[in-house]
Amino acid sequence: MKQFSSIGFTLIELMIVISIIGILAAVALPAYQTHVGKSQASRVMVETGGLRSLVEACLNEGKTTVGSGDGECDPGAVGSTLIDGASQVGAVLPVGQGVPQVTVAADGVVAIEAKFGGSAYPLFHTKTLTWSRTADGSWNCTTTIDTFFRPKGCDL
Predict the structure, then answer these.
(1) pLDDT of 106-156, one tens digit each?
(2) Residue 17 CB partners (closer than 8 Å, separation 6+)
(3) CATH number, domain at 105?
(4) Range of the domain at 131
(5) pLDDT by residue (tens digit) across 1-12?
(6) Do 129 and 41 contact (CB within 8 A), yes or no?
(7) Is residue 76 part of a domain?
(8) Listed residue (64, 69, 84, 75) closest to 125, CA to CA
(9) For the chain, how many structural domains are there in total?
């Protein structure tokens, strides 16, 4: 009797491999989504935090209103797919992008608020991240994002 050597896989072996891949995917997907959420929160913190120096320059020049006219502060906010908010200086933003909203008071109190939206992590929609400046010039970051996703350096 002649024996044939089998090089292929049996159905059972294939089912075992597929079930192992399924288990690994079930474990990896939530970890990946958590990583995406944390990185998006950090990205919005950095994007809004970058406006602080531009706002400081406006305050040093005595500009206390946001706009694009003479004597007004144009913080130079660039559109982000993670933020909802219309441009305050009349610029046209691409569809699905928004910018942080900047409010400047005459006494130097400033708020830079980013409302999560667009393609942000679904749990972040309706959440905000705010940089606040006191009259003495100190900045503070606060957010309404859950503690688990909150970027370092940003308080509740």
Answers:
(1) 888 999 999 999 899 999 999 999 999 999 999 999 999 999 999 998 887
(2) 9
(3) 3.30.700.10
(4) 11-143
(5) 566 656 777 889
(6) yes
(7) yes
(8) 84
(9) 1
